[in-house]
What we know:
- The strands form two sheets. Strands 2, 4, 5, 6, 9, 10 and 11 form a seven-stranded mixed sheet that branches. The chain has a four-stranded antiparallel sheet with strand order 1-3-8-7, with no helix packed on it.
- Helices cover 0% and strands 56% of the residues.
- It is an all-beta fold.
- The protein contains no helices and eleven strands.
Amino acid sequence: VQLQAFGGGLVQTGGSLRLSCANSGSLSAAIEMGWYRETPGREREEVAILRSDDLVEYTDSVKGRFAISGDVARNTIVLDMNDLRPTDTAVYYCNLKNLLRRVSWGQGTLVTVSS
């Protein structure tokens, strides 16, 4: 599994960004894929999860603003981020969990929201 994440950048408060993640390696029997984010001094935080049965989960701070979509079976996901806030500034990571509960991480992509 080689997860490639891209789409980060600099945006003003209230703006939007789309993050994409795809597996460029061997296809994995994934049961879920998700987005996490990390800021200096804080633990990596779960942002949004998409399961193979299309169930989605969001952390409270992004509900109503972010939307995760994609195809877990094809190992691709997208995170649409709207109404961005400075508190959303972080390095965003995508991950994949397979049937054996093994987790793979992609490289991070930086999202910066200016006030």
